[in-house]
């Protein structure tokens, strides 16, 4: 359905941009196959008005012209819809090239590469190599979760979704009804921030814990979407970035380097173990579980209990 609408909008835009005189509704209906297939005049009129509004929201300047005999026509003049020349300096070009290179997955890499080619066609100097200054780096944002693409589209289109989600301390998934706000990558994992309708509050979901298919739902959002900076702060807080106290853990020597990087103090215990003091915030228990038998929580007691509960849930399957 989304592809059919996109094709219809593209055909309408091409007709309006390609004509030298205003085209009436009748002429547009006869020129676009999707309009010919409309069941009735009322159905066509509703479809056409929605499409015209959508194109205007996308930035296309559509003029409405009334002829001498009173017939209304439409056109989009090229001079009114021509973008100004794009000029980029070397640093801006490098930044765009680096961003285009970040996406490594096939479905996203094609779009990023195509965008870069369009920038070159619009004036990006050919002698500027966006990758040259970063040739030793290969930035990547891995996306292995099947839920990423439907959630990305739902965030873009502001569509509520439904999916099954298994919390790290739960044996079975449960259904969640969510108004998705944004996707954020943190510590190599993707998270969805949004409004959980069942709980009536904002929540953050780790994509790797979404099971089954993400289904779209009709209707509008019931909660306001916060600023993108606020969303990032929310993800960081839920994923454990915001820490207001400390925890002590035992860590096997030669393991857990991400934990060691966060440690505020490290003491060798001998027998192949070290003691670390690390910031303790929301989500630390889920992170510690990932290191399995290489980590033992010493204190606080509630963190130790949370980690034990999560490990027991994993053991039960």
Tell me what the structure shows.
There is one protein chain. By secondary structure, the protein is an alpha+beta fold. It is 39% helix and 25% strand. The strands form three sheets. The protein has a five-stranded antiparallel beta sheet. It has a four-stranded antiparallel beta sheet with strand order 10-11-9-12. A three-stranded antiparallel beta sheet has the order 1-3-2. A hairpin with a 5-residue loop joins strand 2 (63-66) and strand 3 (72-75). Helix 1 (2-18) crosses helix 4. Residues 133-137 have low confidence and may be disordered.
Q: What's this entry about, in short?
A:
This protein has 317 residues and is α+β, with helices and mostly antiparallel strands. It has helices spanning 2-18, 25-31, 33-36, 41-57, 90-102, 106-121, 148-157, 228-239, 257-262, 284-289, 301-316, and strands at residues 23-24, 63-66, 72-75, 161-165, 174-186, 189-196, 201-206, 210-216, 243-252, 265-270, 273-281, 295-299.
Which short descriptors sum up this protein?
317 residues; four-stranded antiparallel β-sheet; five-stranded antiparallel β-sheet; alpha+beta
Secondary-structure blueprint of this entry?
Blueprint: H1 2-18, E1 23-24, H2 25-31, H3 33-36, H4 41-57, E2 63-66, E3 72-75, H5 90-102, H6 106-121, H7 148-157, E4 161-165, E5 174-186, E6 189-196, E7 201-206, E8 210-216, H8 228-239, E9 243-252, H9 257-262, E10 265-270, E11 273-281, H10 284-289, E12 295-299, H11 301-316
Antiparallel strand pairs: 1-3, 2-3, 4-5, 4-8, 5-6, 6-7, 9-11, 9-12, 10-11
């Amino acid at each position: 359905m989304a592809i059919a609408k996109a094709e219809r909008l593209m055909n309408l835009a091409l007709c309006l941009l390609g004509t030298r005189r205003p085209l009436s509704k009748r002429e547009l209906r006869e020129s676009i196959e999707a309009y010919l297939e409309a069941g009735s005049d009322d159905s066509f009129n509703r479809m056409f008005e929605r499409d015209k509004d959508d194109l205007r929201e996308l930035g296309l300047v559509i003029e409405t012209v009334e002829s001498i005999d009173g017939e209304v026509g439409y056109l989009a003049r090229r001079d009114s819809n021509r973008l100004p020349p794009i000029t980029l300096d070397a640093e801006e070009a490098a930044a765009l090239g680096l961003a285009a290179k970040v996406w490594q997955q096939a479905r996203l890499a094609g779009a990023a590469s195509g965008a870069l080619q369009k920038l070159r066609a619009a004036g990006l100097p050919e002698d500027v190599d966006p990758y040259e200054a970063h040739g030793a780096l290969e930035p990547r944002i891995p996306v292995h979760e099947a839920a990423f693409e439907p959630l990305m589209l739902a965030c873009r289109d502001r569509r509520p979704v439904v999916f099954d989600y298994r919390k790290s301390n739960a044996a079975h998934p449960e259904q969640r009804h969510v108004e998705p706000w944004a996707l954020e990558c943190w510590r190599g994992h993707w998270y969805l921030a949004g409004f959980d309708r069942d709980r009536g509050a904002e929540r953050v979901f780790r994509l790797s814990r979404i099971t089954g298919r993400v289904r779209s739902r009709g209707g509008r959002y019931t909660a306001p979407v916060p600023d993108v900076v606020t969303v990032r702060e929310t993800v960081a807080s839920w994923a454990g970035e915001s820490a207001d106290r400390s925890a002590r853990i035992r860590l096997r020597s030669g393991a857990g380097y991400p934990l060691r990087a966060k440690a505020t103090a490290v003491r060798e215990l001998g027998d192949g173990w070290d003691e670390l003091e690390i910031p303790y915030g929301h989500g630390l228990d889920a992170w510690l579980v990932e290191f399995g038998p290489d980590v033992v929580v010493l204190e606080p007691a509630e963190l130790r209990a949370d980690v034990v509960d999560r490990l027991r849930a994993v053991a039960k399957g």
